[in-house]
Amino acid sequence: MARYDVVIREVSVLDGTGGAAAIGDVAIAGDRIAAVGVVDGAGDATIDGRGLAVAPGFIDVHSHDDFAAVLHPDLAFKVAGGVTTCIVGNCGMGAAPYTAAMRMAKTFHPRAVLPEWSGYAGYAAHLESTPPAANVGFLVGHGTARVAAMGSKRVTPTSADMAAMRAIVDEGVAAGALGLSSGLIYAPGSFAATDELIALAACFRGTGGLYATHLRDESVGLLDAVREAIAIGEAAGVRVQISHHKASGRDAWGLVGASLALIADAQARGLAVAADQYPYTAGSTVLSAVFRDGRFESGLGRLDPADVVVASAPDHPAWEGRTIAALAATLGATAAEAAAHVLAAEPGATVVVHGMCEDDVRTVMRHPTTMIGSDGIPTLDGKPHPRLYGTFARVLGHYARELGVLTLACAPDAARTSSSSIPRASSIAAPSKTRIGRRRASTRCS
Ligand SMILES: [Zn+2]
How far apart are the CA of 400 and the centre of ligand 1, in A? Predict the structure, then answer.
């Protein structure tokens, strides 16, 4: 009789396809799922799975773990939530070319010293040689490529600049990148015209790669920004991924109904468009992205200083967890003066921004084209947005189990299952490539 390390008995098996759960056994040998269904063999350890569910590891489709995967290879903040694959390189911020990437790495990891690598191939090779605890798939960052090719000035690229950026993107394509990302509210991504993005996204035509974008505007200009993303995908001949889809700022609340309709229209025309989302009404970014020219108005909308909380200010920990409004009161200053004061002392300060409404979060989550991505900022210091740690638990616990926004199998249009109605499986095909909780790195999303 076969012998396994662990056998989980009579557990509700969700295979990740969105299909209904089935009760079965799961046997684990080493770091592999060895059998699923009715398992005759015994395990060194047996877990009573009744009343519990088991699923393949989650893919964090929108992460910023490019450098955390190197600095903190245990990726404990992700693995603890069931994540076994992280897609990095989002919002225009990629891991190469190295010098430009390090400028961006300093924002999230101000004191970190990173080993040097050459290009995306070098980054992938580093992960292969020092594997983090989760698989890593990477995107080429448009902003990083632009900084490397032409600095961070607000200028139109010359043909030589375009050739330099194309060479960077092509190197990423050859190294196995999953697509191009842009961050169009951040400098220098915000300086790029639509044509520049089309030309660079087109490097992925025919590769299966996609164009993932932090839209130019997630507030009252949301719909035009979604139209631009779709136009880029159609002109470049690549799939489109709308990053952390939301309507930010009170003036924009409710626009997600129309933006999801734009996605559905594009799909009806034959373009593959999808979105990702983190399950919170608060976002997180750098303070410099939401406070500009003395005003709390940006691509994230018009914000109240009482809704902007300092998340990380490494040299001023007393500021962390406090709103700009509260800091202003302490300083005897206006909110704008307080924000300028924080930025002068901590140019890379990150903030949590309470800018969305709950109905919009649920509307986006219910949509069949929405995937879950944490967008977590892995600073690990300060008081980071809880999405870094809690995204997947919150989707399963709060939104699926408590609210029923999704079924546990994440099939929004399927009836909710209950344990009494789950059939007993006589045989479920073993997912031979699924791995459980062991170290492995790959440059491809599996
Ligand atoms: Zn973003």
Answer: 25
Report residues near ion ligand 1: CB below 5 Å: 91, 214
75 Cα: distance to centroid of ligand 1 (angstroms): 20
Residues 249, 301: contact at Cβ < 8 Å?
Answer: yes
Q: How many whole angstroms from 151 Cα to the centroid of ligand 1?
A: 21
Residues forming beta bridges with residue 302, ordered by sequence position: 297
For residue 244, how far is its CA from the centre of ligand 1 (angstroms)?
7
- Both structure tokens of 66: 């490019």
Each residue of 350-403: pLDDT tens digit?
Answer: 999 999 999 999 999 999 899 999 999 898 888 889 999 999 999 999 999 899
Residue 167: count of CB within 10 angstroms of its CB: 15
pTM of the model: 0.87
Measured between alpha carbons, how far is residue 425 from residues 11, 36, 56, 60, 357 in Å? 10, 9, 17, 29, 41
pLDDT in tens, 281-333: 999 989 998 998 899 988 788 889 999 999 999 899 999 999 999 999 999 99
Task: With cut-offs at 50, 70 and 90, classify the pLDDT of residue 435.
Answer: very low
Gap from CA of 386 to ligand 1 centroid (Å): 16
Where does 91-178 have alpha helices with state H?
98-108, 119-129, 142-150, 159-174
Asked if residue 83 lies in contact with residue 58, where contact means CB atoms within 8 angstroms, the answer is yes
Helix (H) or strand (E) holding 362, with range, is helix 358-366
Q: For residue 83, give the nearest of 130, 33, 137 by alpha carbon.
A: 137
Residues 33 and 297: their CA atoms lie apart, in Å, by 50
Distance 91 CA to ligand 1 centre (A): 4
